[in-house]
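Obj.: predict assembly geometry.
Materials: sequence records (below).
Method: joint structure prediction, all chains together.
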Amino acid sequence: MALEHAILVSLAERSASGYDLARRFDASIGFFWKATHQQIYKVLARMAADGWVAVTDVPGAGRPARREYAIAEPGRAELLRWSASRSAPETIRMELAVKVRGIAHGDRRAVLDEVHRHRELHAQLLAYYEQDRERWYPDPAAIADEDLPAWLVLQGGIGHERFLVDWCTQILTTLDPETSP
Amino acid sequence: MALEHAILVSLAERSASGYDLARRFDASIGFFWKATHQQIYKVLARMAADGWVAVTDVPGAGRPARREYAIAEPGRAELLRWSASRSAPETIRMELAVKVRGIAHGDRRAVLDEVHRHRELHAQLLAYYEQDRERWYPDPAAIADEDLPAWLVLQGGIGHERFLVDWCTQILTTLDPETSP
DNA sequence: AGATACATGTAAAATGTTACATGATTTT
DNA sequence: AAAATCATGTAACATTTTACATGTATCT
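Observations (raw structure tokens):
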């Protein structure tokens, strides 16, 4: 019970096809929730069966019949119910941390190279998010109330990527001071 | 393919029973990987069948026959192989972020209370980890080489919790300036 | 006497990943 | 002409969560 709700939030903002949702999960919503198109299509089918969303086939516009999903009343009710429920505190799964922790029993050079690679990836993402912030919210004091939640989530994405970049840097300066830092 | 490797790293450090592992996953390894005892027992059975770990029944010591698992040669080989493989960059699943993003379509007060509750939880964890660091690594310059990986992972846990606490605070000061901050 | 810690599992249900499958349109 | 984007799905497999199930020993 979670991807459903991320989809409901996304559809509450704007109706979309499964394809659109998959792209949103790659972009804005993507830094706090990941989902592949296969998963999305499957969950959308269930949500449609449960009446949470309404489907409209749009044959004219796109070539392969495009199915547009809109949030329906029971979906809104579920979103409201869920928003008032408790969430378990975030659980992280840092595979890289497992590798670092076990570096003495593994391939030290390869693990450090991997840390370096991840630092580059996270630095790229960070730059990308910061660019987004610069573009859409140049003046934090001037953000409209309705845009605050999206801004806060972007801030969260930025904070998370910054943490990861800094942590990778600390690992490299500690375990590999000669090479990469 | 991931819980196996976390278990291998844990067993490479010291042999243990399934029960011990479950507790380690609650504690030190717990802030970067979660696993329940049911999951651990199942994976251990598979690993034993694959010859990655060796099992020894210790009937005398504990009351319900305690099964001690030790890493075996194929397990070490697998650990080495895996350590040199690539890992996908960390994917976060922040349910709380989904709630914040959709706050306009949900129960605003309940979501903010939930953010507050999470901030308390993460602040507690942060304090606990910092206490650990103070206790085990009072002087960072004096840490022995073999302890550096564990210290770095602890630093990661601390950094992550700090990020979460700060992010929750930012949400509350932005969306709920009168009440909680 | 009751609670907590020790100790190990099975079974079912839900979720998520990977591989397979197809086909049109637009851009280079 | 090839590559990328648009567009939707099925099937098999793997993983994770939740519920069920049992029993001893130690501490208060």
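Conclusions so far: Residues 17-19, 37-38, 41-42, 45, 62-67 of chain A lie near DNA strand D (CB under 10 Å from a C1').
To do: check interface contacts against the pulldown list.
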